[in-house]
């Protein structure tokens, strides 16, 4: 499979999903004189579907998917995992604890840095950014169950 | 003209007030840092700092955000010249001759030429913005829904045409962005669309999480784990002064870059990036010694650096005069002023003169600040690059998450950022541009509303777009661009955009 073929199929599928969702949730298409909420999305979804098909058909000469170079995928997966943890923990553990844990995870487990430097960095980031944004700039950040 | 000067004087009284000066300084400083740091472009920088502007009034907010934008253009040249690493995408062309000059021991001179060129371009282009925006806004008062629909469609077509890859791919990305921008409550009927029961999606996908995800997070995912950057060439302060010969060689490229950058900036697309590529190509074409390009040609630094700075002012013209963002950065800036209850559009200049003229005047002041900041303090900024990337990217990740969360105090936005970050990383791998997605998300509600209003006005006749002269002209320009692209495709030749794409990939210097 080439990169363009994969992308074309993906785009076409997304267009199909939008059409299916418009039909499943019974969004009115309306008329040309009075377009409904599904009118413009349906037109765009068809355009995306057609574009996807053309990109896929023309994509024989594009580089192969494996040749692109995905060597950083392990790093990327770890970073995505830490980001997901932040999204889950932000309002449950509070800003400072979440950021501190995320930094420790990234530095010790992903980057293999010494525990002491990871802890110092994590504490500086968590408390430093909280002070800057919440205290000085009045951007409200969530507090955890322990009051911080 | 007298009225313009009077307005400008009033603008300076706003811009020179201590609080505005302070926020312009903060914006310029942060912008320079954003420009110096590889992987954090002006878009990510502005998006991250957006929540911090919520407590400010609209003038202070936009002055600070604009400072970040043009500050990043100045800062981006530092790493390009001293390390051959573009701090942001618009500085890619500066790497070639700037780094070559640095290796010859002329790094200080290259930095000075870049800074002075940026200063001249920044200042002169503001005159263009000042003179062009008010009449354009007055003209735009004649626009109804069909004209706006045609303008938005043209914007997307120009963006797709100007992109370095395939126009079809760019249009597909724009369609994807438009579809993503239609998630949420339909503003005309109140129907909940494509939200799969997630109540927080009622207001739609925010520009900030999408932009930070597609640009900031995708960049981190792509670059984390890469080898550490090369050593930094650190110039001494006394080496900063260019020779008389170097000044002479920089003179015309600076002026050409200024004019070119401003007009390219007005067009939709990643104007600051495109302008630097076009300027480099023009300088090489007009040079008496084109063979010097790639080996330390002064014009190869002066032209692109002036052009990318000038383009930042050009990009403000449609944003301020029409309320239409020409790219993702003006889109986020527009979102920032909308948060403060300021309605963008042709009436902005009339209804908010203090904001408009104060902003214009602050750009003059900001350019002086940047010149002072960037030359003597270059050594200080370069030191930031000594922070190892394994420590730098977690910090950027924290700022990104914080910035995105703080816009709406919503964890859903953090998930959107993460999802679009993954999408952006994959799309980069597949050689798709992501800027049209952001523009699509921004334009989706406007384009849908104006299209439906136009069709309702005409009782369902698409001919309304051809019967109204302004709309018909705008669509005709769009059609010409599509035909030009089809012509190039049919010839299967390499036009300037294909060469630009190759240059971006480093296959052609």
Secondary structure tally, helices of chain B: 22
Low-confidence stretches of chain B: none
Radius of gyration of chain A (Å): 23 Å
Strand content of chain A: under 5%
Estimated structural class of chain A: mainly alpha
Structure summary, number of beta strands of chain B: 2
Order of helices and strands of chain B: HHHHHHHHEEHHHHHHHHHHHHHH
Instruction: Give, in order, the helices and strands of chain A.
Output: HHHHH
* Helix proportion range of chain B: over 70%
Return residue spans of chain A where pLDDT drops below 50 for at least 5 consecutive residues: none
Distance between the termini of chain B: 44 Å
Globular, elongated, flat, extended or rod-shaped: what is the shape of chain B? globular
Helix count of chain A equals 5
The profile of the biggest β sheet of chain A is: none
User: What value does the average pLDDT of chain A take?
Assistant: 90
| Helical proportion of chain A, percent range | 55-70%
- Oligomerization category of the chains in this entry: heterodimer
The overall average pLDDT of chain B, rounded, is: 81
- What does the main sheet of chain B amount to? 2 strands, antiparallel
Write down the Rg of chain B: 22 Å
Please tell me about this protein's structure:
Chain A is mainly α. Chain A is 68% helix and 0% strand. Chain A contains 5 helices and no strands. In chain A, α1 (3-24) runs antiparallel to α2 (39-58), α3 packs antiparallel against α4 (95-110) and α4 runs antiparallel to α5. Chain B has 509 residues and is mostly helical. Chain B has 22 helices and 2 strands. Chain B has helices at 2-15, 18-36, 42-49, 58-83, 92-103, 107-140, 145-162, 167-181, 207-223, 244-266, 271-286, 299-322, 328-339, 348-351, 353-374, 378-383, 389-408, 411-429, 435-457, 464-467, 469-491, 496-504; strands at residues 184-185, 192-193. Chain B starts with a helix and ends in a 5-residue tail after the last helix. In chain B, 61% of the residues are buried. Classes of the chains: A mainly alpha (148), B mainly alpha (509). Chains A and B meet through α1, α2, α3, α4 and α5 of A and α8, α9, α17, α18 and α19 of B.
């Amino acid at each position: 499979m080439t990169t363009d073929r994969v992308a074309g199929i993906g785009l076409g599928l997304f267009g199909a999903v939008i059409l299916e969702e418009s039909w499943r949730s019974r969004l009115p298409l309306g008329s040309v004189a009075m377009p409904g909420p599904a009118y413009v999305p349906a037109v765009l979804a068809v355009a995306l579907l057609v574009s996807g098909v053309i990109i896929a058909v023309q994509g024989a000469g594009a580089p192969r998917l494996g040749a692109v170079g995905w060597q950083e995928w392990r790093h990327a997966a770890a970073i995505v995992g830490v980001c997901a943890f932040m999204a889950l923990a932000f309002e449950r553990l509070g800003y400072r604890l979440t950021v501190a844990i995320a930094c420790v995870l990234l530095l010790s487990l992903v980057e293999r840095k010494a525990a002491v430097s990871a802890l110092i960095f994590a504490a500086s980031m968590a408390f430093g950014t909280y002070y800057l944004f919440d205290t000085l700039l009045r951007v409200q950040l969530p507090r955890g169950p322990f009051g911080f | 003209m007298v009225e313009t000067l009077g307005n400008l004087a009033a603008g300076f009284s706003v811009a020179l007030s201590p609080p505005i000066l302070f926020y312009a300084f903060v914006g310029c400083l942060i912008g320079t840092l954003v420009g110096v740091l590889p992987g954090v472009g002006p878009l990510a920088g502005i998006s991250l700092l957006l929540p911090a502007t919520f407590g400010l009034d609209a003038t202070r907010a936009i002055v600070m955000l604009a400072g970040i934008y043009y500050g990043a253009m100045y800062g981006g040249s530092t790493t390009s010249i001293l390390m051959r690493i573009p701090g942001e995408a618009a500085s890619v062309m500066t790497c070639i001759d700037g780094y070559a000059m640095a290796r010859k021991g002329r790094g200080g001179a290259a930095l000075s030429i870049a800074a002075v060129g940026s200063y001249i371009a920044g200042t002169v282009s503001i005159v263009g913005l000042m003179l062009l925006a008010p009449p354009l806004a007055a003209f735009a008062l004649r626009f109804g829904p069909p004209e706006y629909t045609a303008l938005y469609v043209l914007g997307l077509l120009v963006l797709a045409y100007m992109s370095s890859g395939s126009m079809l791919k760019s249009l597909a990305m724009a369609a994807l962005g438009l579809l993503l921008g239609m998630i949420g409550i339909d503003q005309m009927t109140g129907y909940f669309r494509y939200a799969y029961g997630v109540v927080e999606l009622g207001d739609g996908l925010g520009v900030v999480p999408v932009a930070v995800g597609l640009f900031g997070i995708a960049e981190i995912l792509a670059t984390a784990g890469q080898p550490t950057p090369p050593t930094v060439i650190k110039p001494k302060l006394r080496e900063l002064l260019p020779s008389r010969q170097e000044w002479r060689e920089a003179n015309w490229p600076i002026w050409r870059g200024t004019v070119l950058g401003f007009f390219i900036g007005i067009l939709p697309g990643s104007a600051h990036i495109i302008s630097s590529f076009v300027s480099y190509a023009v300088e090489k074409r007009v040079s008496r010694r084109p063979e010097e390009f790639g080996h330390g040609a002064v014009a190869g630094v002066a032209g692109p650096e002036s052009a990318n700075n000038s383009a930042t002012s050009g990009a403000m013209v449609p944003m301020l005069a029409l309320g239409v963002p020409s790219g993702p950065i003006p889109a986020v800036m527009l979102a920032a002023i909308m948060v403060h209850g300021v309605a963008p559009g042709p009436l902005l200049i009339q209804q908010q003169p203090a904001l408009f003229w104060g902003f214009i005047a602050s750009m003059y002041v900001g350019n002086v600040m940047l010149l002072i900041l960037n030359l003597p303090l270059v050594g200080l900024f370069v030191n930031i690059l000594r922070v190892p990337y394994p420590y730098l990217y977690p910090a950027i990740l924290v700022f990104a998450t914080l910035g995105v969360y703080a816009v709406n105090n919503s964890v859903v936005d953090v998930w959107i950022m993460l999802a679009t970050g993954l999408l952006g990383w994959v799309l980069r791998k597949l050689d798709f541009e992501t800027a049209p997605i952001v523009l699509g998300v921004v334009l989706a509600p406007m384009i849908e509303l104006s299209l439906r209003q136009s069709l309702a006005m005409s009782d369902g006749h698409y001919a309304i777009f051809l019967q109204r002269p302004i709309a018909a002209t705008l669509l005709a320009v769009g059609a010409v661009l599509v035909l030009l692209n089809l012509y190039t495709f049919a010839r299967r030749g390499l036009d300037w955009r294909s060469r630009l794409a190759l240059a971006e990939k480093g296959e052609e210097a």
